[in-house]
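A.,

Following up on our hallway conversation. Structure tokens first:
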């Protein structure tokens, strides 16, 4: 039984770079995306430079590319793996950097397997204890599960409970399909469902299939996936800002100040900065921030390291530089 009061990641074993203590991975669902040139992968964080003939990878780049039945027409960027439907994988030259994706029936009938990692894609309603035990006999299996219920969160949670009761520890990719009608609805639904599961310690990778949401492109799907992982505090890939909603006590223009602080610090991966309008409630509201920028009087700012005051009531004009100085003193500053 899981405790609702503490965070525990579901115990899994590692298969390649998925599961156990690996950060949750991001799978890009590219089955319906036309990819003909290397430059087409820029949307998912892999940028190809034709002059140097080199790839560069952003902090928010998908590690797995689900290509289905349409393999990339060029070699995938280093550090990525293509996921191919098993019938396509069998006919492909590369049986190492490409990973097969089976249905449960295919898993039972096809004997050729990848030596390290095999993905079995199934629905929540497929997962009986008997099937789980059958799949668990092979330590290379990664389950990719999509919910068949309209109550995705509770349905996937029930799957996790079934796996817990069956004592199986294979890693899980949460395959998420949004039913939202607009971009905002799609992102909100995904954040609630997938974010909730991650906060509960479930999921070793996520694949967002948001293409059914009108206007939502692959780049936004990938950004959403990384944003949800960051908000669930399971994988930090950018600076985190915690700002109060502002109220009658707010002592500066919160929006303007937040964007000014962001413009100086948004390259500090994993650093959490609280920006709070007043000193009455701000320090409590910024909870686990690494640094705090808190209004403490008209034109006055108090700076925090964690919950400890480092500079009290300094003029707001130089407060951002002072904040940067504190981050530098702590050895957490990097140049852009
Ligand atoms: S931190 Fe202060 S200014 Fe911000 S919302 Fe809370 S009470 Fe209002």
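Then the amino acids I'd put at each of the 336 positions:
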């Amino acid at each position: 039984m899981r405790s609702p009061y503490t965070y525990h990641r579901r115990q899994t074993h590692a298969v390649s770079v998925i599961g156990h203590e690996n950060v949750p991975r991001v799978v890009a669902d590219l089955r319906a995306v036309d990819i003909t040139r290397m430059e087409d992968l820029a949307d998912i964080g892999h940028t190809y430079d034709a002059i140097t003939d080199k790839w560069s990878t952003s902090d928010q780049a998908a590690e797995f590319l689900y290509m289905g039945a349409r393999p990339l027409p060029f070699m995938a960027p280093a550090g990525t793996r293509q996921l191919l439907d098993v019938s396509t994988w069998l006919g492909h030259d590369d049986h190492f950097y490409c990973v097969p994706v089976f249905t449960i029936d295919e898993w039972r009938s096809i004997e050729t397997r990848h030596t390290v990692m095999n993905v079995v894609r199934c629905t929540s309603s497929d997962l009986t204890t008997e099937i789980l035990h059958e799949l668990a006999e092979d330590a290379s299996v990664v389950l990719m599960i999509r919910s068949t219920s309209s109550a995705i969160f509770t349905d996937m949670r029930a799957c996790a409970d079934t796996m817990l009761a069956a004592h199986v520890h294979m890693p899980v990719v949460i395959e998420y399909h949004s039913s939202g009608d607009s971009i905002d609805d799609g992102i909100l639904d995904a954040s609630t469902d997938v974010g909730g599961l991650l906060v509960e310690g479930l999921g070793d990778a996520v694949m967002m299939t948001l293409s059914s949401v009108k206007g939502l492109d692959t780049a936004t799907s990938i950004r959403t996936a990384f944003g949800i992982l960051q908000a669930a505090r399971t994988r930090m890939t950018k600076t985190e800002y915690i700002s109060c909603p502002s109220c009658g006590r707010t002592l500066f223009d919160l929006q303007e100040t937040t964007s000014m602080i962001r413009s100086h610090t948004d390259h500090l991966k994993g650093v959490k900065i609280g920006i709070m309008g007043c000193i009455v409630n701000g320090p409590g509201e910024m909870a686990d921030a690494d640094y705090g920028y808190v209004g403490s009087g008209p034109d006055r700012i108090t700076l925090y390291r964690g919950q400890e005051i480092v500079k009290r009531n300094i003029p707001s004009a130089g407060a951002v530089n002072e904040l940067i100085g504190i981050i530098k003193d702590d050895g957490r500053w990097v140049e852009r």
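Residues 244-247, 249-250, 276-278, 280-282, 285 surround iron/sulfur cluster (CB under 6 Å). Curious whether your intuition agrees with the design.

B.
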